[in-house]
């Protein structure tokens, strides 16, 4: 449904603070752009300084030529004419020369700026966006190389926080989902589940419009009701290219991704849960309904020998940090660790392995499982223990806790944890205010400044 039309406005000046507010807002934007132009690493200040130096040197050269060459008479007449316009009692004669020099320099800088504006407009880039693009390409390109593994809303929340600090994020997303829109497309087209990929693309897209469209879910229409636009787009590209993994380059270009998003496997797997009572459950969407009073002992993928993209393996080798979660233990995090090549690289990399602890248990999946039990499950499936565990110590509102408790979910903490786990834990307030989910900004800050990186561990 479109937004209702705005009421007619008689004139900008008639609105409260109309023109003054607009001018102040324009001034703030101009000040912000100026600060970004002058920020370290953009690569502008050095060339601006060189331009000014060359301009002054050129002025000296012109002065030397005219004063010592055939234009000496003309230069003398010009200086006498300028001197006649200046009153010595108002300003010294040399000040007039400085004023002329500054006016010429300002005119030269203005012409360069307008030339750049014309060139940018001709290439389809809005001049006001140029500094944002340069800041992204220069500043964010120097950010840490962070690899995240998992899926669900926890992964997309983390990525939305990291994108502000680095352009070198690589998200490795589980593709074992077999429910909802993803399950329908997977069954119809024999493709990997696109749902979690769509959420991650939206979180990292530099186009706000595209990010919003990717998450739009159709509420009506035969055959498309329940599908998101992003899932349908990924299905289209998968059909066009032969597989979704072959369409990765096109997807990153079309969506203007700040970083990279890859599926953990290139073929659609089935997640299998092996329960403590000897039963097995096939299909991620069946876990919560069929586990019952039993516990999940371990999970596997069918088929087990799934291939991984070379870009995924190279990203793990080059990573400064490997982040697991946040997300559901058995349906988001561990499935990404079960791809053989991915697990091998994770065990070999010197980069620290950081587990973002879940805030609450998952009804039907991790009932009564402690935080230490979560860490032990990751260690058992991967063959490597996390080097660091990020633990939230902020309390959600009481009504939120009660609402989750009514659904069978309970808070996770370090109560009863071993000395080893406490020694590897970093405890910080990571909670989104008033909710029971991680705050993207706080979590990104914790990973960048509190959790270890490769250069801190080597």
From TrEMBL:
<feature type="region of interest" description="Disordered">
    <location>
        <begin position="1"/>
        <end position="24"/>
    </location>
</feature>
<keyword id="KW-0963">Cytoplasm</keyword>
<dbReference type="GO" id="GO:0008360">
    <property type="term" value="P:regulation of cell shape"/>
</dbReference>
<keyword id="KW-0472">Membrane</keyword>
<dbReference type="GO" id="GO:0005737">
    <property type="term" value="C:cytoplasm"/>
</dbReference>
<keyword id="KW-1133">Transmembrane helix</keyword>
<dbReference type="InterPro" id="IPR038136">
    <property type="entry name" value="CofD-like_dom_sf"/>
</dbReference>
<dbReference type="InterPro" id="IPR010119">
    <property type="entry name" value="Gluconeogen_factor"/>
</dbReference>
<protein>
    <recommendedName>
        <fullName>Putative gluconeogenesis factor</fullName>
    </recommendedName>
</protein>
<comment type="similarity">
    <text>Belongs to the gluconeogenesis factor family.</text>
</comment>
<dbReference type="InterPro" id="IPR002882">
    <property type="entry name" value="CofD"/>
</dbReference>
<dbReference type="Pfam" id="PF01933">
    <property type="entry name" value="CofD"/>
</dbReference>
<feature type="transmembrane region" description="Helical">
    <location>
        <begin position="47"/>
        <end position="67"/>
    </location>
</feature>
<feature type="transmembrane region" description="Helical">
    <location>
        <begin position="91"/>
        <end position="112"/>
    </location>
</feature>
<dbReference type="GO" id="GO:0043743">
    <property type="term" value="F:LPPG:FO 2-phospho-L-lactate transferase activity"/>
</dbReference>
<keyword id="KW-0812">Transmembrane</keyword>
<comment type="function">
    <text>Required for morphogenesis under gluconeogenic growth conditions.</text>
</comment>
């Amino acid at each position: 449904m479109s937004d209702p039309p705005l009421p007619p406005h008689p004139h900008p000046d008639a609105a409260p603070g109309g023109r003054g507010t607009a001018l102040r807002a324009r001034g703030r934007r101009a000040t912000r752009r100026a600060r970004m132009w002058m920020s370290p690493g953009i690569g502008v200040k050095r060339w601006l300084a060189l331009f000014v130096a060359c301009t002054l040197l050129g002025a000296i050269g012109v002065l030397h030529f005219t004063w010592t060459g055939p234009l000496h008479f003309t230069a003398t007449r010009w200086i006498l004419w300028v001197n006649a316009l200046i009153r010595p009692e108002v300003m010294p004669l040399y000040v007039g020369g400085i004023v002329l020099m500054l006016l010429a320099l300002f005119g030269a800088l203005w012409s360069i700026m307008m030339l750049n504006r014309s060139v940018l407009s001709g290439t389809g880039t809005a001049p006001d966006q140029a500094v944002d693009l340069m800041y992204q390409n220069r500043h964010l390109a120097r950010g840490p190389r962070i690899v995240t593994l998992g899926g669900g809303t926890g992964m997309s929340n983390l990525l939305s926080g990291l994108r502000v600090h680095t352009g070198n994020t690589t998200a490795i997303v589980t593709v074992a989902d077999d429910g909802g829109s993803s399950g329908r497309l997977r069954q119809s087209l024999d493709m990997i589940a696109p749902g979690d990929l769509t959420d991650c693309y939206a979180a990292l897209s530099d186009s706000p419009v595209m990010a919003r469209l990717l998450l739009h879910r159709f509420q009506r229409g035969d055959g498309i009701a329940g599908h998101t636009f992003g899932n349908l787009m990924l299905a289209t590209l998968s059909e066009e290219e032969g597989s979704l993994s072959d369409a990765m380059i096109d997807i990153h270009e079309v969506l203007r991704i700040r970083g990279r998003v890859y599926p953990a496997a290139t073929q659609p797997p089935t997640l299998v849960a092996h329960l403590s009572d000897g039963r097995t459950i096939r299909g991620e969407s069946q876990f919560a309904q069929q586990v019952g009073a039993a516990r999940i002992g371990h999970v596997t993928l069918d088929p087990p020998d799934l291939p991984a993209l070379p870009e995924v393996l190279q990203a793990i080798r080059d990573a400064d940090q490997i982040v697991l979660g946040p997300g559901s233990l058995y349906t988001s995090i561990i499935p990404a660790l079960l791809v053989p090549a991915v697990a091998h690289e994770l065990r070999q990399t010197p980069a620290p392995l950081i587990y973002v602890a879940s805030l609450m248990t998952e009804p039907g999946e991790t009932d009564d499982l402690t935080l230490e039990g979560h860490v032990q499950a990751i260690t058992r499936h991967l063959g490597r223990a996390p080097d660091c565990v990020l633990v939230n110590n902020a309390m959600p509102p009481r009504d939120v806790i009660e609402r989750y408790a009514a659904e069978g979910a309970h808070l996770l903490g370090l109560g009863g944890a071993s000395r080893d786990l406490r020694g590897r834990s970093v405890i910080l307030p990571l909670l989104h205010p008033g909710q029971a989910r991680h705050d993207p900004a706080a979590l990104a800050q914790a990973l960048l400044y509190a959790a270890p990186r490769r250069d801190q561990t080597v």
